[in-house]
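Design request, tokens follow.
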């Protein structure tokens, strides 16, 4: 009876996870349909909801299949690397042989990052395009012509689904604090971009209703959080300069991708683009500080056991005595 109840709870948790994942992807599809000019859903509200649910199911199935295939292909290499790392090292061998397991794990980590980037850039757009075609075959009106709108819509689905999934993680006890930090970073980036549109002349959004502009700012902030990197260098200030330059590149790519988005984001000139990236980086500073504090708290060493002997015992003192 205990085993059956535990299995039931496990299945309930798995079903809840699948439902939340579908809801996150459906929110991404809805936002992409609202913002991308060439991505149109027509018909009654009920038919549009069915089309969004069907496309979200296809996208979720495609990304799940890609993740499972990647895990199956990389599992033997990861297992072999862990076995080599757990073996007794040859102290008389060369340095190359000694560090070979570490290099193997680092190489597999780079390969995994590249595969994740490939999934983001290909699987999401292709799965969304397939979902649109399936909706058309089912008699639902969904239109997504051209590869570029499909590519931008796929990126928007991935970014917004990640942000909505982070919001859902706020209601889980184990992931509440990490989700709050991630969601705070998204909101601060959106606030920083809104501040940049107010104080910089060359950074602006096309005229649109307030809710569409707020939705576009949130979508840009979610896209901004997709290719996240962290950097620490011994020279003060150099890491900040490198990160601002990286953020400037990411923001330029987002502005180029928003050519088919309504309202469109404009950054007219290099200094305006760099200024917007610098403002977003500065406004996001509290979120980065919270992440560093959480990492520092997690990395604190275990407390040293007290010395069981009094100070004047005359024997060597320390945690091992």
């Amino acid at each position: 009876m205990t085993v059956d109840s535990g299995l039931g709870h496990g299945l309930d948790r798995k079903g809840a996870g699948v439902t939340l994942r579908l809801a996150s992807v459906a929110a991404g599809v809805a936002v992409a349909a609202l913002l991308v000019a060439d991505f149109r859903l027509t018909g009654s509200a009920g038919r549009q909801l069915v089309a969004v649910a069907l496309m979200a199911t296809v996208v979720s199935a495609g990304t799940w299949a890609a993740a499972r295939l990647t895990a199956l292909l990389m599992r033997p290499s990861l297992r072999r690397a862990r076995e080599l790392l757990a073996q007794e090292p040859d102290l008389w061998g060369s340095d190359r042989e000694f560090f070979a397991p570490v290099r193997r794990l680092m190489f597999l980590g780079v390969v995994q990052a590249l595969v994740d980037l490939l999934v983001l850039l290909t699987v999401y757009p292709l799965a969304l395009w397939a979902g649109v075609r399936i909706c058309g075959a089912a008699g639902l009106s969904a239109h997504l012509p051209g590869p570029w709108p499909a590519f931008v819509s796929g990126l928007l689905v991935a970014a917004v689904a990640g942000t909505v999934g982070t919001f859902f993680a706020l209601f889980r006890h184990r992931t509440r604090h990490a989700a709050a930090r991630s969601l705070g970073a998204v909101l601060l980036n959106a606030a920083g971009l809104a501040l940049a549109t107010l104080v910089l002349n060359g950074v602006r959004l096309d005229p649109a209703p307030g809710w569409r502009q707020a939705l576009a700012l949130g979508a840009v902030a979610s896209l901004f959080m997709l290719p996240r990197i962290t950097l620490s260098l011994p020279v003060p200030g150099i890491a900040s300069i490198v990160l601002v330059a990286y953020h400037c590149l990411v923001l330029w790519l987002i502005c180029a991708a928003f050519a088919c988005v309504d309202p469109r984001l404009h950054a007219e000139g290099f200094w305006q683009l760099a200024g917007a990236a610098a403002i977003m980086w500065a406004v996001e500073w509290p979120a980065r500080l919270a992440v560093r504090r959480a990492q520092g708290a997690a990395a604190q060493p275990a407390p040293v056991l007290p010395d069981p002997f009094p100070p004047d015992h005359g024997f060597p003192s320390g945690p091992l005595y």
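Comment from the thread starter after seeing the answer: thanks! Residues 21-144 form one domain.
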